[in-house]
Specification:
This protein has 3 helices and 5 strands, in the order αββαβββα. The protein has a 5-stranded antiparallel β-sheet with strand order 2-1-3-4-5.
Length: 106
Amino acid sequence: LPGMGDNTMLQEQIINNLLAAILAGGYSITVNDGDDDVLKYSTDTTRIINNMGATDTDLLKVYQGTEYIGFILLVPSNGDDIVSNHSGNDIITNLVDKVLEDLGVL
């Protein structure tokens, strides 16, 4: 996939499933490359993926409208533990845990 770089198949599944779960919940995603928001309030999976992978980490900021809900930090160099950190609120924790459990990572 464009923007995915050298990610493993499991990492790509985690990313794709996270994006699908976030967008299915009615949320949008802002992609931050560690310095700048390179894509804001997007619901377009292809555009989101194309804006990821430019740096060693991707910070996905989750919004409902313009209300900030939380973040998910992806670090591909962590291998299967690509989800390095995330907001501890119920919405983000439930999204992340469900995706990781469904893939047998958690």
